[in-house]
Every structure is written in C-alpha cells, then in structure tokens.
Amino acid sequence: MQPNMDNNIRVACLPSGEAFKLFEEKVGSETLQMHPDIHNIAEAVVEECAGLPLALITIGRAMASKKTSREWEYAIEVLRQSAASVFPGVGKEMYLKLKFSYDCLPDERLRSCFLYCSLYPEDHLIEKDELVDCWIGEGLLDEHTNLSSARNQGHFIIGSLIDACLLEKEDNHRVKMHDVIRDMALWIAGESEKENFFVKSGVQLKEQPKAKKWEEVTRMSLMDNQIKNLTEILECPNLQTLFLGSNDLKE
C-alpha cells in the first residue's frame, strides 16, 4: 500500500465477536472447555490482542496445548505486562504480544532456528533444504550420526515453526516469514545479549553499508542487493554468518 493514494484501504482490527471466533478457531473449542475459568480468561486474552488478527492467530496457536486454568492465568499476566511496556507505539506493543509464541517454543534450539530465518529478505521464499543445510553448517541442530538424520530434524523444526504460525508454508519445498513476524524476529535479535544481527537484505544497497560496532556483529546478511565492491576490511571477530548471495559483486 502506497502512502497518500486515493484508493488506500484502511484495514481495521476485528470487532470483539469476530476476534474471539478467530482465537477460538486457533485454540480449539476443546481446550476452552477444559476448565470453567479458561473461557473467561480467553476472553481477556482476546481483549489484550486488541483485534489484531496476527496476534490472535499466533497467541491462539501457542495456547492450544495449555489445558489448565493456571497456565491461562499466567498467559494473561504475561500479556498484560507486555501491554504496559514502556516501548512506544503499536508496533513494539504488538511484537511483545507476538513474542509470546516465540517464548512458548519448547527449547532454545527452535528459537535460534526461528531467528535465523530473519536473515533472509522480506517476502523471500526460503528453500527448506537450503535452510536446513545452513542450520546444520551453523551447528544449530543436535549432533547426529549421519546427514540424513540431521536433515530430518531440520525439517521437523520447520514443521514445528509452521505449526506455531512463526513460518508460513508456501509449497512442499519452500517457506516464508510474514513481514510482521520477521520484524519481530529482528527486534528480538536486537534485544538479545547473545546475538547481534546486522541485516540489510533486499534493500537495494549499492555500496558497502556502515555499522556502529562491527566487532559485536554475530550474523550479517547483505543478500539480494546491488553491491559491486566489498573492499573495506571489517573487524568482525565474532562473525559466524555472512550472506552475500544475489549481489553484483565484482571485487
């Protein structure tokens, strides 16, 4: 959507009834009926999502396996703390709500694999096999006795991220990351003490970019640009990942 266009359409948030219906669809009516208090708490969770479909879907999927009222009480407590965050603007507030699905991933391995997907450009169709091979090369997966077993684990993780609505299935061989989910992933990486991403992928760069502290960067993606020369020597002692694909590199 282009700014200042006469035919722009404002996409409104869902009204409360439709919002709850969407949330119930993702959680499952069986879960909502597990305890008398869960339905009431679910209504409060939907209210915290402020009618944002993406928040309703991702948090709904995250809560689908939560069958006790205590788990639901904890969820609403977390979401209310997020809403009261000091971060200004709806965008950051939404990231905090969507981050709940990220926090619900079962282990750090899945979280690292998810964040890795944000290195690809916006709307990029990611080949599953390529992504899994990168994860293997980066040491993000378990140790395996053979390559086939490692690749199987990688595809299992992709399936888990799709189930959590953190990746979208494009076809049998490719996935992509929703723009807002990708922004959230980069925000999480930016807040991380372990990871320091420098991502300028798919932004039409023609020259080598600048960064304040190259020495802190752990993963860098400059793919899908128009860079021809990379001649400046960068001091990046902590760099583990460098994506330069789909450029016009000459030197």
Structure description:
The chain is mainly alpha-helical. 47% of the residues lie in helices and 6% in strands. The chain folds into 3 domains: 16-103, Helicase, Ruva Protein, domain 3 (Orthogonal Bundle), CATH 1.10.8; 107-178, Arc Repressor Mutant, subunit A (Orthogonal Bundle); 196-251, no CATH class. The strands form 2 sheets. It has a 3-stranded antiparallel beta sheet. A 3-stranded parallel beta sheet has the order 4-5-6. A hairpin with a 4-residue loop joins strand 2 and strand 3 (174-176). The longest helix is centred in the middle third of the chain and has 17 residues, at 147-163. The chain starts with 15 loop residues before the first helix and ends in an 8-residue tail after the last strand. The model is unreliable at 83-88 (pLDDT under 50).
What's this model, at a glance?
The chain has 251 residues and is mainly alpha-helical. Helices cover 47% and strands 6% of the residues.
What order do the helices and strands come in, and which of them pair?
Elements: H1 16-27, H2 29-32, H3 36-48, H4 53-63, H5 69-83, H6 90-103, H7 108-116, E1 126-127, H8 128-138, H9 147-163, E2 168-169, E3 174-176, H10 179-191, E4 197-199, E5 219-221, E6 241-243
Parallel strand pairs: 4-5, 5-6
Antiparallel strand pairs: 1-3, 2-3
Helix pairs in contact: 1-3, 1-4, 3-5, 4-6, 5-6, 6-10, 8-9
